[in-house]
Amino acid sequence: MEQALKGLKVIDLSQVLAGPYCTMVLGDMGADVIKVEKFPKGDDTRSMGPYINEESYMYMMVNRNKRGICLNLKKDQGIQILYKLIKDADVFIENYRPGVTKKLRIDYETVKAINPSLIYCSISGYGQTGPYKKKGGFDIMAQGLSGIIDMTGEREGKPVKVGIAIHDIAAAQTAIQSILAAYIHRLKSGIGQYIDVSLVDSGLAWTVWEAAAYFGKEEVPRRNGTAHRVSAPYQGYKTKDGFILIGAANQKLWEKFCIHVVNKPKWVVDERFLTNSIRAHHVDELEIEIESVLKEQNSLYWLDLLDRHGIPSGPIYSYDQTLSDEHILSRDMILAYDHPVAGAMKTLGFPAKLSETPAQFKNPAPLLGQHNRDVLTELGYSEKEINDLFANNVFNN
């Protein structure tokens, strides 16, 4: 099957997570992604473990389906090579701190003169404008500024960072949808454009329920553990041998839960639990009542009973349990492949299942500078010129 983005040429100057995740997805969908790594050691994640035969697993996780070159952009010859790559590219992605691309002579205005139809995407911590634009920004700082850390954790506990790099992935997803929107616009108009994506903005845009509460009633989200702010029961509950999740928030599900699962029909008419909003105001009392029943049986017993009565529920897995779950495996969310140095490897699969243009695993993450000579040959450099560039430390071999 032909892929949706076949023929799209992407030049990727990003590193670590947000940018590389974005370009990985574009590569999964068929784009020709050329990853340009800094000379001489490459993407910073190459120095992060765990390592398999001295190859970083972190690097390999988000750089599949790309070709890789390692280019010295402090050399004028390196910049000229990059300009040649840009000349017929469709998309250019970078995640330098604002201002750095201007110093390197690869800012949008400079490269737009080389390729006026280019779609240029910058990903940074705080964006290209505003008083914080020059600050260095990682995911954890974005979680703090967006309020997400303050609203995460147990009610009486310390603020807690979300377990994954949520702002990095949010920025990657924002970049993907923006690039594809810009590409559709260019197909219709022939005009490229500049895209400014920040980690802070991207994660903040996901706080829609919390914004509604604040704009509507000036409610500041508080830490609630696993509980929902306006729905109940909708959280994790302790059983005899662990914890499970129950989502019986609407009235029909609540009544089925009371009558058929926990055999407590009196809860249906209890004044504390009459409606969803009332239950949410008495969430602590509700938790005590529910757990007093759930503690009598183990988690599997309750999950089976909840399933039989059509009430949304689920386990709280450790990550190893997640990666061995039969449903996860049946959805092809774990892929096995062979890496030329690391050997037999596993990676996460493709979350979207497209019937006509599916994502595909074509090649593992490139070794450092693996495609230097191939890409330079495609640009018209002779073997002698390539050897001279190598001798002059413009790229590694």
UniProtKB/TrEMBL annotation:
The keyword Transport does not apply. The keyword Transferase applies. One of its GO terms (molecular function) is CoA-transferase activity. Keywords: Transferase. Pfam families: CoA_transf_3. PANTHER family: BLL6097 PROTEIN, SUCCINATE--HYDROXYMETHYLGLUTARATE COA-TRANSFERASE. This is CoA transferase. It comes from Psychrobacillus glaciei.
